[in-house]
Specification:
Blueprint lengths: L2 H14 L6 H6 L3 H8 L4 H9 L1 H4 L13 E6 L5 H15 L4 E6 L2 H9 L5 H4 L6 E4 L4 E4 L4 E6 L13 E5 L7 H10 L8 E6 L5 H6 L5 E6 L9 H11 L3 H6 L15 H6 L8 E9 L10 E8 L4 E6 L7 H15 L3 E5 L5 H10 L5 E4 L5 H13 L3 E3 L4 H7 L16 H15 L12
Parallel strand pairs: 1-7, 1-8, 2-5, 2-6, 6-7, 9-12, 11-14, 12-13
Antiparallel strand pairs: 3-4, 4-5, 9-10, 10-11
Helix pairs in contact: 14-15, 16-18
């Protein structure tokens, strides 16, 4: 296409689309070439105005709640735009009232300076061209054009918050604070100026006691989100980090903004599962598909998990093929497909809920399916305990992250009980049946090498 034709296409787009209705959405929806064409033709004042219009660029997770809150907590993945949201919130309040006094608190003074004040999304960078932000490191304060002042503090020296009073506070990366509760308590006791003192917390999640207390507390509004929600991030960056960390505990915490806690007394811990994750799987010599059938198609999921033994005699969790809301015919076909995919030696299925029906349904899907029925005489946690011991001794590895399965595993409690997602640990139970057959079963046979 000629340059003249391309220009005509751009002009046609502008005529057909009302860019003023949603400038950010319009620009982000364009290709890089089209977006550059428009932005490069803006004058310097227009570009400055575009950058300063936070209401244009902010996504939903970066706006404060309209309700009656005391603490607004943005607990989200890296790159979500938490720092920009904090800088814009403080700047807007300071712009509107020159009498305000803020507390800016980070893990260290250096963090406050490098991120909250001087950073790419800090207070200095988000100021308008007509405004002045005077940052005096010696005095440890930021003065705004309106006369409002922000004082800086760190969790390392939390005692310095004992005494000073503020209207509002911005607490950044609270999850990495040392002395978090002492610092928080001192800050809250000094938050007594004005009619409605408020705190903004911007942090990636981490299972510290203070975060757990704040989540769900009265007067606390929680906003969460993922790294990928920030459309201003380079696509390559988002794609690369998702490819590298998706599904891992680190990825779910640092990219998806999930607060992942270990349940007290759980058979498996998150750290244990992370240690047992491998990048390379050796030659697999035998595969078993574990199945935990649902009571009904409108009940729990059908747990379907493929596990294999390698030439190193370790077990490897290969895949989670579980399905939900499926009829018996549908989940039976899913089991058959998994058995065919992995050339499984055996399908081990619990028959407590259906007796002969389970085997009949499976054989209807594949008459040659090597089905073994097992009957649960003990509770799920009791059956899982010897399997958990295999993990502890390094005899079981995960070939990739299995978030839904691992959440259930970490919800099974020693001595009985389940505190994971869903009504029943169907995926985890299927895993237990497969590993019991492979590693603990009486019928285990000498493995034979196969081509995968």
């Amino acid at each position: 296409m000629s340059a003249k034709s391309r220009k005509g296409t751009h002009r046609q787009k502008w005529r057909e689309t009302d860019i003023t209705a949603d400038p950010a959405g319009f620009l982000c929806g364009l290709s890089g070439t089209d977006r550059d064409y428009i932005l490069n033709r803006l004058s310097e004042p227009q570009r400055r105005e575009m950058n300063e219009r936070w209401d244009i660029w902010a996504h939903e997770g970066q706006y404060p709640d309209d309700g009656d809150w005391r603490v607004w907590m943005i607990m989200a993945g890296r790159g979500f735009g938490k720092t920009r949201a904090g800088s814009e919130w403080v700047s807007r309040l300071a712009r509107a009232d020159g009498n305000l006094r803020f507390a800016l608190i980070g893990a260290t003074i250096d963090d406050v300076r490098k991120v909250m004040i001087e950073g790419e999304s800090g207070l200095i960078k988000v100021k308008r061209a007509t405004e002045n932000v005077d940052w005096n490191a010696t005095r440890g304060e930021v003065r705004f054009s309106s006369g409002a002042v922000a004082h800086i503090y760190s969790a390392e020296s939390y005692e310095k918050l004992r005494g000073p009073e503020h209207h509002h506070a911005w607490c950044d990366e609270l999850a990495k604070w040392n002395n978090a509760e002492a610092c928080w308590n001192n800050m809250m006791l000094g938050l007594r100026l004005g009619e409605k003192p408020r705190v903004l917390v911007t942090t990636t999640p981490k299972t510290i006691s203070l975060l757990r207390k704040l989540v769900g507390q009265k007067g606390v509004v929680l906003r969460g989100g993922k790294t990928a929600q920030n459309l201003n991030l380079p696509e390559d960056f988002v794609d690369n980090v998702r490819a590298a960390y998706a599904g891992t505990r680190w990825g779910r915490q640092e990219l998806d903004g999930e607060l992942i806690e270990d349940v007290a007394g759980a058979l498996w811990s998150r750290d244990l599962l992370e240690r047992q994750r491998v990048a390379l799987v050796p030659q697999i010599v035998r595969v078993v598909i574990g199945v935990d059938p649902p009571v009904s198609e409108h009940g729990d999921q059908c747990g379907i998990v493929a596990v294999g033994v390698g030439t190193d005699k370790k077990a490897y969790v290969l895949a989670d093929h579980s399905v939900g809301g499926a009829s018996p015919e549908t989940w039976a076909r899913a089991v058959a497909a998994a058995a065919e995919m992995w050339q499984a030696d055996r399908v081990v299925a619990e028959d407590n809920q259906g007796g002969n029906m389970v085997e009949s349904v499976l054989r209807a899907a594949d008459v040659f399916m090597p089905v073994k029925r097992v009957h649960a005489s003990r509770g799920k946690s009791a059956r899982a305990e010897p399997v958990a011991a295999l993990y502890e001794t390094g005899r079981v590895c995960h070939a990739q992250p299995f978030p839904a399965l691992e959440d259930q595993m970490c919800g099974l409690i020693v001595g009985g009980g389940y505190e994971g997602p869903g009504r029943s640990p169907d995926r985890a139970d299927a895993l237990v049946w497969a590993l019991t057959e492979l590693m603990l079963g009486k019928t285990a046979r000498e493995p034979r090498v196969r081509v995968m």
